[in-house]
Amino acid sequence: MSIRPITANDWPAIMAIQAQCYVELTPESLEVMQSKWQLSPASCVVFERQGNVLAYALVHPWQRGDAPSLNLELKGPIESNSWYLHDMAISPNAQGMGVGKQLFTYLINQAKTLMVNGIGLVAVQGAQTYWQQQGFKPEPTSAKLAQSLESYPTGACYLYLPL
């Protein structure tokens, strides 16, 4: 098993995992997903076992207390000392294997090595409890963040993990 940066050949597997995992929202297009990768290729990774992509994480610079709207194609560069965990998804075939914990630990270690101040995310599909168990906390919602959150399913919540 290994965690490595995303390559162009990984996208069919990434898009399949996205479609399997996000049932409460319409999956983002390939172009939108790849825009996150193109913005920060070193922090966008896959978890691979025996040549099969089992999970992915799309992480890129973004301002603390803000989140990009869903389906927004990002353009760079973005100046920020915080990261945004846009998406971390694990194939149903890999559930219970500890993939999420390994992937999250890898991202945290990478962020600390690069002296990133913290990581924000929008929890969807009831994942708020999971992310809070990982140390993320709710933050005050600005008007700009509230507008972005309108593009997410009901119940979406912005959380931040200071490092």
Summarize the structure.
With 163 residues, this protein is an alpha+beta fold. The protein has helices spanning 11-21, 30-39, 99-113, 128-133, 143-149, and strands at 2-5, 45-49, 52-61, 82-90, 118-123, 137-138, 157-162. A 7-stranded mixed beta sheet has the order 1-2-3-4-5-7-6, sandwiched between helices.
CATH homologous superfamily heading = Gcn5-related N-acetyltransferase (GNAT)
Shape: globular
- Which regions are unreliable across 5 or more consecutive residues at pLDDT < 50? none
What strand line-up does the widest sheet have?
A: 1-2-3-4-5-7-6
From the alpha carbons, calculate the radius of gyration and give it in angstroms: 15 Å
Give the strand content. 25-35%
Query: How many domains make up the 3D coordinates?
Result: 1
Order of helices and strands: EHHEEEHEHEHE
**What name does the CATH topology carry?**
Aminopeptidase
- Biggest sheet, open or closed, and with what strands and sense? 7 strands, mixed
Separation of the first and last Cα atoms: 27 Å
**CATH architecture heading:** 3-Layer(aba) Sandwich
Helix count from the secondary structure assignment: 5
What is the SS-derived class?
A: alpha+beta
Please identify the top-level CATH class: Alpha Beta
Q: What is the tally of beta strands?
A: 7
Mean pLDDT: 94
